[in-house]
Amino acid sequence: MKTKWIACIFLMSLIACQKKSFTQIESPDNAIVGGSPVGPENPLSHHVVQIVDQTNSLSCTAVIISRNLVLTAAHCIPFTSDHLTLIFGANPSAEKYETRKSDNAIAHPSYNNTSMGDRNDLALVSFSGGLPVGFTPALLPDSGLALNEGQAFMTLGYGRTSGRLPQDPQDMQGSNILRAVSLSVESFTANHHQFEVNQSYGRGICAGDSGGPAFLQRNNNDYVMGIASAVIWMPPQGLTEAEQKYYQQQMDVCAEKSIYIDVSSYLPWIREASRMLFH
Predict the structure, then answer these.
(1) DSSP letters along 70-97, please?
(2) Which CATH class is domain 8-277?
(3) Domain-by-domain residue ranges, the chain?
(4) Pairing of strands 84-88, 36-37
(5) Distance separating alpha carbons of residues 105 and 245, to the nearest angstrom
(6) DSSP letter string over 234-271?
(7) I want to staple 62 with a disulfide (CB 3.0 to 4.6 A). Which of 25, 70, 98, 185 is the partner?
(8) What is the pLDDT of residues 106-126, one digit of tens each?
(9) Residue whose C-alpha is closest to residue 26's, from 158, 150, 169, 130
(10) How many CB atoms lie under 10 A from the CB of residue 54?
C-alpha cells in the first residue's frame, strides 16, 4: 500500500523562538546546522543581533538595517515590544556583550503563521542608544539585485545545531552562539515572496535562527536578501499515536526544508513601516 505524506510547517515560532538560556545545546564544533561559529573577525557578525522577549525568554535572530532598527520575523514579535531586549555579541554566554531595549515594533499586516506559500513573516524593531562599537547596518537590496534558483548565500543565527526533539520539552532554545553556514536557493513561490532551501544535506536553520538574514555579498557590501521564517517536514499519514510519538522522537525536524522571506519583494513595506516607527 502506498504511504501518504502531508507537508507540515514547523513554525519558527515553535522551534526557533523557544525557551532561552545561556547554555550550550550541542558541541561548539557543530553549528547552525552544519556550519561554523563566527566572531568579530567575520564582518557578517557585525550586522546580526539576538532578540530576547524577557517575559518568556523566547529568543530569535535579527539583522541590523540602520543605527536604530533591525529586521526580523513577524512571529518573533510579541503583542507588545516593551519587553524585547537586543543582545549585541557573538557568544553572550561566554563573552562580553551589550544590550539595547526596544522602543517599538511593527509586524507585516498580512503576516499569516499558518500559510506555507504566503507567510509575509517580517517585522521591524526600533531601539534607542545607537549601535555598539563594531556593529554596522547591512544593506537592503536595490532593484537590480536578486537571488536566483541555485544561487548560494550565507545565513547566520543563534539557533540549535539539531532539530531532534529533546527529552526535556523546555530544551528547545537556541545555542546562543552565533554561527554561519552557506546554503542555496532551491525554489521560489510563484509570487516570489518566499524561497525554499533544501536542508537534507546536513546544513540549514533550526531553533533560534528565526529572523536571521540570508546574506549576498556584492562589491564588498553585505546585502540582506532573505529572512529565516520556518522549516518544513513531512511525516507520513496513517500512523498510530504510538508510531507518531516514536517518529517525532527519532526525526530531525530541521533536516528537510526551510522557508525564507524574500526581502526584495517587501522593500516598499519596509520603507513605509520604518517611517511609521519614527513618526
Answers:
(1) EEE-GGG--S-STTEEEEE-S-TTTS--
(2) mainly beta
(3) 8-277
(4) unpaired
(5) 38
(6) -PBSS--HHHHHHHHHH-BTTSSEEEEEEGGGGHHHHH
(7) 70
(8) 999 999 988 888 899 999 999
(9) 158
(10) 12
